[in-house]
Write a structure and sequence with these properties.
CATH topology of the largest domain: Rossmann fold
Catalytic activity: [(1->4)-alpha-D-glucosyl](n) + phosphate = [(1->4)-alpha-D-glucosyl](n-1) + alpha-D-glucose 1-phosphate
Low-confidence stretches: none
Radius of gyration: 27 Å
Number of domains: 2
Pfam family, one: Phosphorylase
Strand content: 15-25%
Number of helices: 34
InterPro entries: Glycg_phsphrylas (IPR011833), Glyco_trans_35 (IPR000811), Pyridoxal_P_attach_site (IPR035090)
Bound molecules: ligand 26V
Structural class: alpha/beta
CATH class of the largest domain: Alpha Beta
Number of strands: 25
Family: Belongs to the glycogen phosphorylase family.
Keywords: Allosteric enzyme, Carbohydrate metabolism, Glycosyltransferase, Pyridoxal phosphate, Transferase
Largest sheet: 10 strands, mixed
C-alpha cells in the first residue's frame, strides 16, 4: 500500500509546483496550485504502476470496457481517497495555507458522457481497480464534452464545454502507441498463396492518438488504464508538399474533417439519428482500441487461438458493436485465420450490455452509408448476416417474419443490437425488470434462439465517490457505529440495520442531513441568490430531462399544491423545497419547454407572498457529477418516478438511498430491487404496474381526456398551462399541454397523478414523525451496500468475463 509522510508530501508538492509553473508557490493562484497537486498525485500513481509492472507477468486475464462515454467528474478527491493519503495531504496543505476542499473545486469536471450510461462506466472503472481486476477503459477523448447548460430567462442555453482549455493533469499523451484507422476507399480481392485476400486501397487514413488516464484502486495499489483516443491527421498528409502543390485548402479540409471525429460528444441519449459522423466516431475508437489490444497481446507472446482466455472485451450498449467485425477483420486479414476460427474467437471474447428498451434509441445504419465508409467491415457484417440467416432458416424454415425480424441487415439498414447479440457470448440487462423485458418482449426472438446468452447484472454505483467522498460525515458515522469493514465489503453496511431504533444514531443522522442541507442551501444562495428553508423537506429530482422520466408529473403536483395553498393559506403541510436539475438534449423541444415550465413555476411560487415560503422551487443550472455530489447528500426525498418499464435501471436512485434519502418511486428499473431490500414500509411506491402499462400499450383503452374531464385538479392545472397563469405568452406551454392531452399522454402522467399526490401526502405525514423518518433513513443506508458497483463488477467478473478469483478478491 502507498504511504507518504506529511513532510515528504509537502516537499514533493512545493518542488512539483516550481517544476510545473517555473516560479515559487507563493505567487500562484488556486488553479495553479490545484494543477501542481493533481500532477503530483498523477506521478505517485505512475510510480505505483511502474512498480507493479516489475512484478506483473501479464498472465492475468485483462478486461477491456469499450464505451463511447466515460463521465468521470473530478478525479483529485477520489484519487487521494483511493491512494489513502487524503488526510496527510489535507494537513500538509493546511500548513501551507491551502484548504484542500477549496482546491478541489478548481478542478474542471471531466464530463465525457450524457448521463447514467457514462457515469456507470466511470463507477465500473473505480470498482474494477478496487477489486484488483485488470480492467481498462477504451473510449474517445472528445475535445468538447457534454455542453454547459446556462439558464437565461428561464430557458436552457447551451455553451460549448471546452474542458481542455485548462490543462488536464490526469492524462498522458502516448503518440508512440498511435494506430491508423482506415475510412472509405475500396477493397480489392486477390488470391495470394491460394488464399482469397482482401486488400483495402485508396482509403483515408486517420491517426488515432491515445491519451491515458491511470485509474487507481482503493488502497490496494492496483493501477488500471483509461485510454481515450484522439483523431489527428496522419502527419505526412499535412505537410508542406501539399502547400507547394497549391493544395493548401484541401489539406486544411482534410485536417478539419479528421479532427471533427473526436471533436464533440453527441448530446442526446434517447433519440437516435443516423449521422455519418457518429458512425465514424464509433469505428474510430473501436478500431484503434482493438488494434492496440491485439498488438499488445502479441507483443507479450499471446497465442491468438486462445485470445478469449487472456482477454475479455465488453461493449457498453451498441455504440462499440463494430468491435465484432473489427476483431474479425484483424483475425481474418491480418492473422490469416479461417472464418470458423475467427468467429469462434470473436464470439467468445466479446460481451454486450443493453441499456435501454426505448425503440427510438436503437441504432441502425443505412447500408449504403455504411458500405461507403467502411467497405471491408461491411463485407464482414454481410457475411455474418448471411451465415446467421442460414442458421435461422435451418431452425425456422419459412418463418419469414421471424427471420426478417432477427436478421442483422434488413430494409436497407444494419441493426446494431442484432449484430451485438449475434456476435457476443453474453447479453445482459441492467436491472431485473429490464432484463425480463428484454427476454420476454424486446429481444424475445433472440432469447428463445440463444437462451443461455441472456443474463442480468443490476447496476451499481461506487460507494467510494457516492458516500465516502461526497458525504464524509455520514461515512464517519458509519465507521464509528459499525467499524470500517463496509469500506472494503459494502454489503457490511447492513450492520447498521440494528441501529434503526437507536435514538442517538437517529439524532446524529438528522444532524448530518441538516449540515448537508445547509451546505447545499449556501451553494444555492451563492449561485442563484435564492434563500431556502433548511428545515423544509428537500425533495429532489435530478437527472436528464425527458418525457419518460416525468419531470412533468412532478411539476403538475407542485402546481396543484400551489393551488391548494392559495385557496387555503393555512393548509397544514410540512414546508418543502423542490429541487430540480438536469440537461435537455439541445434538439429536444418538449424537454426544453419542461425546463422553462419548472423555472416559470419557480418564479411564480417563490415570489407569491401568500405561499409564506411553505414551498419553494429551485432549478439548479448545469447538472454534472460534481454538482450531484453536493445535492445528493442533502436530499430527504429522491424522486424516481419514470413510467414503469421505461427506466432500464436508474443509478441516482441508488446514490440517494445510500445517502439516507427516502425514495418515492414507481415500480420501475432498480427501484424494484431497492424496494425488495428495504421492504415496502421504507419506500414510497405509487403508480401503474408493469402489467398495467404493458396492457395499455398492447390493448389500448387509455384516454387522458377522460381524466382531464373527471379530475377537477387536473382540469385546472392543465388549463393553467395555456391561460397565461404561468407565462404572459399563453401559448408558451402549449407543447406540454398537447403532449398530455392532444397526444394522449404517452407516459401516463395524468393516469399516475392521483396516486402520486397520495404518495406525497404519505411523505408529508411521515416526515412529521422524525423518529420514524430517520429509522427509515437508517434502513435505507444499511441496505444500500448491495448497490455498490463492487457487487456489480464482481458479478460481471464471475458471470461474464470469467476473471479468475485469484485476481478478484472475494467479497
Ligand atoms: C443512446 C444514444 C442514441 C444515439 C445518440 C447518442 C446516444 C447516447 C447514448 C445512448 C444510450 C442510451 C441508454 C442509456 O443511457 N441508458 C441508461 O443507462 C443507465 C445505466 O445502465 C441506466 O441506469 C438508465 O436507466 C438508462 O436509461
Amino acid at each position: 500500500m502507498f504511504y507518504i509522510d506529511k513532510n515528504t508530501f509537502k516537499e514533493d508538492y512545493l518542488e512539483k509546483y516550481i517544476e510545473l509553473h517555473g516560479e515559487e508557490f507563493k505567487f500562484g493562484n488556486m488553479r495553479q496550485k490545484y494543477e501542481a497537486l493533481g500532477s503530483l498525485v498523477r506521478d505517485y500513481i505512475t510510480k505505483i504502476k511502474i512498480e507493479n509492472n516489475k512484478t506483473n507477468n501479464h498472465d492475468n486475464k485483462q478486461v477491456y470496457y469499450f464505451s463511447m462515454e466515460f463521465l468521470l467528474g473530478r478525479l483529485l478527491g477520489s484519487n487521494l481517497l483511493n491512494l489513502g493519503i487524503r488526510d496527510i495531504c489535507k494537513e500538509g496543505l493546511n500548513e501551507l495555507g491551502i484548504d484542500l476542499d477549496e482546491l478541489e473545486s478548481f478542478e474542471q469536471d471531466q464530463g465525457l458522457g450524457n448521463g447514467g450510461l457514462g457515469r456507470l462506466a466511470a463507477c465500473f472503472l473505480d470498482s474494477m481497480a478496487s477489486l484488483n481486476i485488470p480492467g481498462h477503459g477504451c473510449g474517445i477523448r472528445y475535445k468538447y464534452g457534454f455542453f454547459e447548460q446556462k439558464i437565461i430567462n428561464g430557458s436552457q442555453v447551451e455553451a460549448p464545454e471546452n474542458w481542455l482549455k485548462c490543462e488536464n493533469v490526469w492524462e498522458i499523451r502516448k503518440p508512440s502507441n498511435s494506430q491508423i484507422v482506415r475510412f472509405g476507399g475500396e477493397v480489392r480481392m486477390e488470391k495470394i498463396n491460394g488464399r482469397l485476400s482482401f486488400i483495402h486501397i485508396n482509403y483515408d487514413p486517420v491517426l488515432a492518438v491515445p491519451y491515458d488516464t491511470l485509474i487507481i484502486g482503493h488502497e490496494n495499489s492496483a493501477v488500471n488504464n483509461l485510454r481515450l483516443w484522439s483523431a489527428e491527421p496522419v502527419s505526412n498528409e499535412f505537410d508542406f508538399s501539399s502547400f507547394s502543390r497549391g493544395e493548401y485548402l484541401k489539406a486544411i479540409e482534410y485536417k478539419n474533417s479528421v479532427e471533427a471525429i473526436s471533436n464533440v460528444l453527441y448530446p442526446d441519449n434517447t433519440f437516435y439519428e443516423g449521422q455519418m459522423l457518429r458512425l465514424k466516431q464509433q469505428y474510430f475508437f473501436v478500431s484503434a482500441g482493438i488494434q492496440s489490444i491485439i498488438s499488445n497481446f502479441k507483443k507479450h507472446g499471446g497465442d491468438i487461438f486462445n485470445l478469449n482466455e487472456s482477454i475479455a472485451i465488453h461493449i457498453n450498449d451498441t455504440h462499440p458493436t463494430l468491435a465484432i467485425p473489427e476483431l474479425m477483420r484483424i483475425l481474418l486479414d491480418e492473422e490469416l485465420l479461417s472464418w470458423e476460427d475467427a468467429w469462434r474467437i470473436t464470439t467468445s471474447t466479446i460481451s454486450y450490455t443493453n441499456h435501454t428498451i426505448m425503440a427510438e434509441a436503437l441504432e441502425k445504419w443505412p447500408i449504403e452509408m455504411f458500405k461507403k465508409l467502411l467497405p471491408r467491415i461491411y463485407m464482414i457484417v454481410n457475411e455474418i448476416n448471411e451465415r446467421f440467416c442460414k442458421d435461422l432458416w435451418d431452425k425456422y424454415t419459412y418463418q419469414w417474419d421471424k427471420i426478417s425480424r432477427m436478421a442483422i441487415m434488413a430494409d436497407g439498414y444494419i441493426r446494431m443490437a442484432n449484430l451485438a447479440i449475434v456476435g457476443s457470448y453474453s447479453v445482459n440487462g441492467v436491472a431485473k425488470l429490464h432484463t425480463e423485458i428484454l427476454k420476454k418482449q424486446v429481444m424475445s426472438d433472440f432469447y428463445y434462439f440463444y437462451p443461455n446468452k441472456f443474463n442480468n447484472k443490476t447496476n451499481g454505483i461506487t460507494h467510494r465517490r457516492w458516500l465516502i467522498k461526497c458525504n464524509p460525515q455520514l461515512s464517519n458515522l458509519l465507521k464509528e457505529t459499525i467499524g470500517d469493514g463496509w469500506v472494503k465489503h459494502p454489503t457490511d453496511m447492513e450492520y447498521l440495520y440494528k441501529f434503526k431504533d437507536d435514538e442517538n444514531i437517529k439524532d446524529r443522522l438528522a444532524l448530518i442531513k441538516k449540515n448537508n442541507k445547509i451546505a447545499l442551501s449556501e451553494f444555492i444562495k451563492n449561485n442563484q441568490g435564492i434563500n431556502i428553508d433548511t428545515n423544509s423537506i428537500f425533495d429532489v429530482q435530478v437527472k436528464r430531462i425527458h418525457a419518460y422520466k416525468r419531470q412533468v408529473l412532478n411539476v403538475l403536483r407542485i402546481m396543484n399544491l400551489y393551488n391548494q395553498l392559495i385557496e387555503n393559506p393555512n393548509l397544514d403541510i410540512e414546508p418543502r423545497t423542490f429541487i430540480f436539475a438536469g440537461k435537455a438534449a439541445p434538439g429536444y423541444y418538449l424537454a426544453k419547454k419542461i425546463i422553462e415550465l419548472i423555472n416559470a413555476i419557480a418564479t411564480k411560487i417563490n415570489n407569491d407572498r401568500r405561499v409564506k415560503d411553505k414551498i419553494k422551487v429551485v432549478f439548479m443550472e448545469n447538472y454534472r457529477t460534481s454538482l450531484a455530489e453536493i445535492i445528493i447528500p442533502a436530499a430527504d426525498i429522491s424522486e424516481q418516478i419514470s413510467t414503469t418499464t421505461k427506466e432500464a435501471s436508474g443509478t441516482s436512485n441508488m446514490k440517494f438511498m445510500m445517502n439516507g434519502a427516502i425514495t418515492v418511486a414507481t415500480l420501475d428499473g432498480a427501484n424494484i430491487e431497492i424496494k425488495d431490500q428495504v421492504s415496502e414500509e421504507n419506500i414510497i411506491i405509487f403508480g401503474l404496474t408493469e402489467k398495467e402499462v404493458l396492457d395499455y400499450y398492447s390493448k389500448g383503452g387509455y384516454s387522458s381526456y377522460d381524466i382531464y374531464n373527471n379530475d377537477i385538479r387536473i382540469n385546472r392545472i392543465l388549463n393553467d398551462l395555456v391561460n397565461g397563469a404561468y407565462c404572459n405568452d399563453k401559448e408558451n406551454f402549449r407543447a406540454i399541454y398537447n403532449h398530455l392531452l392532444t397526444y394522449n399522454d404517452e407516459f401516463f402522467d395524468l393516469r399516475d397523478f392521483d396516486s402520486f399526490v397520495k404518495a406525497q401526502d404519505r411523505v408529508d405525514k411521515l416526515y412529521r414523525d422524525k423518529s420514524k423518518w430517520y429509522s427509515m433513513s437508517i434502513i435505507n443506508i444499511a441496505k444500500s451496500g448491495i448497490f455498490s458497483s463492487d457487487r456489480t463488477i464482481y458479478e460481471y467478473a464471475k458471470g461474464i468475463w470469467d476473471v479468475p478469483n485469484s485476481s478478484c478478491k472475494d467479497k
